[in-house]
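Worked Example 4.2. Consider the chain below.
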Amino acid sequence: MTRARWDRLQAQYHLIRDCISGEDAVKDQGQLYVPKPDGMTTDNYNHYLDRGCFYGAPAMTLRALVGLALRKDPVINLPPRLEAMRLNATYENAPMQVLVEDMVREVAAMGRFGILLDFPAEGATANTVPHISTFRAENIEDFETGFVRGAESADPRASRI
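Applying the procedure from the previous section yields the following structure tokens:
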């Protein structure tokens, strides 16, 4: 990925996160999102910014999309050996249900979410259970897109985290 593409994606991710976080996050960015009109003093600009309103539609829309996607609990079929992952799937000790909710939320908001299944190379026994590491879109350094069954899709084989 080129540096220009990386910078553009980071700016987009930052914008999306700020919009989802709401009015305070948008206002905290000051002139990035609310340019200061010519000739306006700093004090007047701060009052101007304070009087502004950012409606929380992005967060409400995301919450509705996640709710619709998960209106029914996902069916998670695990072999008996991996059943422990249902209650402890990630390095953060999150249960599988929380992992699924995080995946849906991040993909709906950012368009991508990284998942890495980690299994220890050394010291593993027949009862060793893998853990899942997750990566926000901002932390995925490179990815390629391709077509899968006629639709454009990220190529997981080309991703670097």
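Residues 41 and 67 are 44 Å apart (CA to CA). The two ends are 12 Å apart (CA to CA). Compare this with Example 4.1 before moving on.
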